Each structure stands twice: as C-alpha cells, then as structure tokens.
C-alpha cells in the first residue's frame, strides 16, 4: 500500500475536522453543503474510488425525499455525499470512530442507539423536522452493513417520517465493483472488522468503482404504511443489485 496515499487520506481527514471547527460556524446552509460535497469527492478520490451514477428507467433524483440505501461500508456516506449531501442517520457506534465519528457529527449525522425506543422516537421527530425544512435525509434500513451479494431485511420504523412529512421515499442501490464488474471484496465492512482495518483494505485495493443506482421514488400519503414502503424499497434495491432485472438506462459521473 502506498504510504503517501495513507498520509494524504489522514491529512484530508484533519482538514475536514479543521473546516468543521473553524469555518462551518461562519457559513450558511448552502455553503456548508457545497463544502461537504467537495470534501467527500476528494476523500473517495484519495481512496481511488471512482463514482458512477446509473438511473433506472423513469428515475430521477428527487429534490426532496427520504433516501434509503443498502449498506456496505463506511464509504457509503461519503460516496452518496459526493453526489448530493444528505443528513444521515447512523448507528451510535460510529460516533466513537477516530476522527470520522466527530466529523460525521459536525456534518449533521443523526446517531441512533440500538434497541432504545425512546431514542427512535427522538430521531423520528428530528427526521420529520429536517424533511419539512427541505433537507435531504438518508438512512440505511438494514441497520448494519452486509456483505455484497446479500441484502438484509429492512427495519420499517423510520419510513414513517416520510409519510408524516409527505415526501417520497427514494431508494438507492449501492455496489463496489472491480475492473471486471464483479463485487470488490475490499469494500466489505462486516463482522469484527474495525474502521482502521477497513480503511487500510480500501487503500491497499488500489482502486474500485462505486456505482449508485438511483431508483424511482415511492410516493407516500396518509394511507401509506411504513411496512409497505420498507418492503417496496427492499424489493427495488434487491432487483437493482441483481435479485431481479431492473431496466438501467444511463450512467454518468456525478
């Protein structure tokens, strides 16, 4: 693994920390979003991850939506933010990660504790408020990372926020590929692997392609049920990842 690439990535993380601490307090919302997008693009670039965007037939990126995606790696947040910054919901464990945990907190990530009903209710109200304010909100309904090629069941609770805020749900399917179009094993972040171990694996890989498949929105209304939305999102993402045969029509760099 090139030592220079690791050094550059670490320096980039420190640059992000300094920006959040010293610059963000003086910026408006749009300026902060532009900084997050630019910083995320540079991070995935330093990790030698090329990002491409594919649209399913009839799909376009919704300006206001609750975004849901399958969860493969810590890279997912930064890959999606390199396209359009979102306010993410993430498990509370991430807050304790060196450097990245603090950085995620300062860029608006909402942390949720597993198994705490009161915490879910608090997060839910925060999501509704953010969606009403026009923010892009995203979460990983599997609740944890899964190895590529598998898709865990979706938790339905937070889908209720889209119903109350009256915004659509937009599924994204995310995968990391090698130069032959196969799943890249270095992207998997599962089991007892630490963030540091995963980051080193990504840097040692010497390059991979992250593909985001943007899927059609799922409309919500007062008659919608969160379980139905969760099941529909799961089916759409599963099909895009290979469980079915979605009609993909375009590919472009973000």
Could you list some keywords that capture this structure?
254 residues, alpha/beta, Cobalt-precorrin-4 Transmethylase, domain 1, eight-stranded mixed β-sheet, 42% helix, 17% strand, disordered C terminus, lipid metabolism, acyltransferase, 1-acylglycerol-3-phosphate O-acyltransferase activity, 1-acyl-sn-glycerol-3-phosphate acyltransferase
Q: How would you characterize this protein structure?
A:
By secondary structure, the chain is of the alpha/beta class. The chain has one domain: Tetrapyrrole methylase, N-terminal domain (Cobalt-precorrin-4 Transmethylase, domain 1, 3-Layer(aba) Sandwich), CATH 3.40.1010. It is 42% helix and 17% strand. The protein has an eight-stranded mixed beta sheet, sandwiched between helices. Strand 3 (87-91), helix 4 and strand 4 (110-112) form a beta-alpha-beta unit. Helix 1 (3-23) runs antiparallel to helix 2. The longest helix is centred in the first third of the chain and has 21 residues, at 3-23. The radius of gyration is 17 Å and the shape is globular. Residues 244-254 have low confidence and may be disordered. Pathway: Lipid metabolism. It comes from Noviherbaspirillum galbum. Residues 65-177 form the Phospholipid/glycerol acyltransferase domain.
């Amino acid at each position: 693994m090139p030592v220079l690439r690791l050094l550059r990535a670490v320096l980039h993380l420190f640059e992000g920390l300094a920006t959040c601490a010293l610059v963000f307090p003086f910026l408006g919302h749009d300026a902060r979003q532009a900084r997050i997008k630019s910083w995320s693009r540079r991070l995935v670039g330093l990790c030698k991850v090329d990002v491409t965007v594919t649209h399913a037939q009839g799909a376009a990126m919704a300006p206001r939506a609750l975004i849901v995606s399958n969860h493969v790696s810590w890279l997912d947040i930064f890959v999606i933010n390199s396209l359009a910054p979102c306010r993410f919901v993430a498990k509370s464990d991430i807050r304790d990660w060196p450097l990245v945990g603090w950085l995620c907190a300062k860029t608006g990530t909402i942390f949720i504790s597993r198994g705490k009903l009161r915490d879910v209710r608090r997060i839910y109200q925060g999501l509704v408020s953010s969606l009403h304010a026009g923010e892009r909100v995203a979460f990983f309904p599997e609740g944890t990372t899964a190895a590529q090629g598998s898709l865990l069941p979706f938790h339905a609770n937070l889908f209720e926020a889209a119903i109350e805020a009256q915004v659509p749900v937009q599924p994204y399917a995310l995968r990391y590929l090698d130069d032959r179009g196969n799943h890249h094993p270095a992207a998997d972040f599962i089991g007892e692997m630490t963030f540091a171990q995963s980051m080193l694996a990504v840097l040692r890989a010497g390059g991979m392609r992250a593909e985001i498949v943007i899927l059609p929105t799922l409309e919500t209304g007062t008659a919608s049920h969160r379980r139905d939305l969760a099941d529909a999102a799961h089916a759409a993402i599963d099909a895009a990842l290979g469980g079915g045969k979605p009609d993909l029509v375009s590919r472009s760099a973000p």
